[in-house]
Amino acid sequence: MGVSSESGITHEELRLAARNHAMPLEALRxxxxxxxxxxxxxxxxxxxxxxxxxxLEVGGTVAQPLLTTLDELREWPSVELTATMExxxxxxxxxxxxxxxxxxxxxxxxxxxxxxxPLAALLDEARPxxxxxxVVFSALDRGLEGGIEQRYAxxxxxxxxxxxGAVLAYEMNGAPLPPQHGFPxxxxxxxxxxxxxxxxxxxxxxxTEPFAxxxxxxxxxxxxxxxxxxxxxxxxxxxxxxxxxxxxxxFTRERVVEGSPIALEGRAWSGGAPxxxxxxxxxxxxxxxxxxLTRDLEGPWAWVRFELEWEPPRTGAFVLxxxxxxxxxxxxxxxxxxxxxxYENNAVQRVSVTVR
Length: 356
Description:
Elements lengths: L2 E2 L6 H9 L36 E5 L5 E3 L1 H5 L4 E8 L11 E2 L9 E10 H8 L7 E12 L2 E10 H6 L3 E6 L2 E2 L9 E3 L12 E7 L6 H4 L3 E2 L8 E2 L6 E4 L4 E2 L6 E3 L4 E8 L5 E7 L7 E2 L1 E3 L9 E7 L5 E11 L22 E7 L1
Parallel strand pairs: 2-12, 17-24
Antiparallel strand pairs: 1-5, 2-3, 4-6, 6-9, 7-8, 7-12, 9-10, 9-11, 13-14, 15-18, 16-17, 18-22, 19-20, 19-23, 21-22, 23-24
């Protein structure tokens, strides 16, 4: 992954942006993101899967290997998980210099209701060996990355796989997974960035050594230089996004609003702990007002709604910001923290508004 100091988007980035779509910020008004508006990132190709011949294999260091069909999985006791999912590269296009990859601004996020089998139940059935340390999740999509031919695969420590509340999901918002979201089965790990939630799942493998595949050991590492190992990208940092108020300019997306007070609203989330507070600023972050929080979804892993009645002190131009703080005290920075991969950019959103 290279970087660019130029402001223009490359042809390669444009092609990625055309394949992968963000969630329009006005969709923050919906507690549950409609499937067609939920953000989407496909690393390689969307595979064509025949559900009649598809199988999930659970093996490796286990006492009882499993080979199961989709119909058989649907007969297991199921759970529903409401979870906000954000791409680890959300905000990448706002870095300078800009890492060359999918050029997300701030909208690579969505919240869905996932139904499926608890991962812990499947692991209990397979009975991991006493020397098992990680669980590797392998997908059907294949491609080249970093010069390496591979199929997409990620891992979790065994303890995290058991205790995280992860689900092997076959439904999204009450319907079978659509092809682009991982049909027929995907992993959903609440609180973790999107790369962890392996789509088109075909194998779950228990290992006695840490997984050294490309997507684990080379990609999704937070580092300042290419030649350092860095640390793995894991849980989502606290973040908030405002619904842009008023009317948009078609090209710039800058907003025009009239009247006072002006109702501001948005959503906030964190993968580390529930959101405790959201503040809103109308002067680019020099001063802050606390917003009201509404927890309109069940469970600890879904975003919360915030709202504030804003009374502009004058007409003219403003820069609106919002800042989330979770129960651990972690909060959003005013400026992004640059890194080679363009990951974990949870700097405050800035919305340009003209009050008439």
